[in-house]
Amino acid sequence: INQQQYKLISSDDVYAYYPSWTLDNSKVLFTQKHEGQWQLFQVAAEGNQQLTQQLTQQAVKYAQEVNQDDIWFSQEQQSGMYRLSSSTGKVNMHWPQFPKNQYWRYNNNAIYFVSASPVNGLYKTALDNYHPELVAPLEKGVGGQFSVAQNGRIFVFEDRRRLQSDLKISP
């Protein structure tokens, strides 16, 4: 990695957060604060800055493409999981009961998220039916952002109990 040259794919005036690849790896989705609220953008992976496109006019905090036509997203300070149709641009509420302010990731047809209720842990739910099941209990202070391995059985978490954030991996 130290020998590689990284290429800037967003413009200098963009504050890009929470990036995620589209399924075909041709674009990167990201959020940024725009006019006081988080909104969703995409940029071509080859880095043509003129191809940066705003996808929503509404608040978006975390987003991921889950199939060729749907980008799912959640909003800051609001409960709910939404679906944005890539082909029509139409937004629909999919799960009104999804907890607010939860960092989440999509993997293997499921949404994974950390929640303190009913037990502090990592939960997952199928895309077609919101029914969270506990995947892994977590120690207090462990959670925040995380990643799920492709097989859906290994997880890495932030541990924010010290001055810096450490990483912990599941057994």
Strand order of the largest sheet: 1-2-3-4
Q: Terminal Cα separation, in Å?
A: 27 Å
What is the overall pLDDT average? 83
Which geometry do the CA atoms define? Answer: globular
* Computed Rg: 17 Å
Give the strand content. Answer: over 45%
Query: How would a textbook summarize the main sheet?
Result: 4 strands, antiparallel
- Uncertain segments: none
Structural class: mainly beta
**What's the count of strands?**
15
Q: How many DSSP helices? A: 0
- Secondary-structure element string: EEEEEEEEEEEEEEE
Helical content class: under 10%
Concise description?
With 171 residues, the chain is mostly beta strands. It is built from no helices and 15 strands. The model has no long low-confidence stretch (mean pLDDT 83).
Q: Would you kindly provide a written description of the structure presented here, covering whatever features stand out?
A:
The strands form four sheets. This protein has a four-stranded antiparallel β-sheet, with no helix packed on it. The chain is globular. Helices cover 0% and strands 49% of the residues. The protein is mainly beta and 171 residues long.
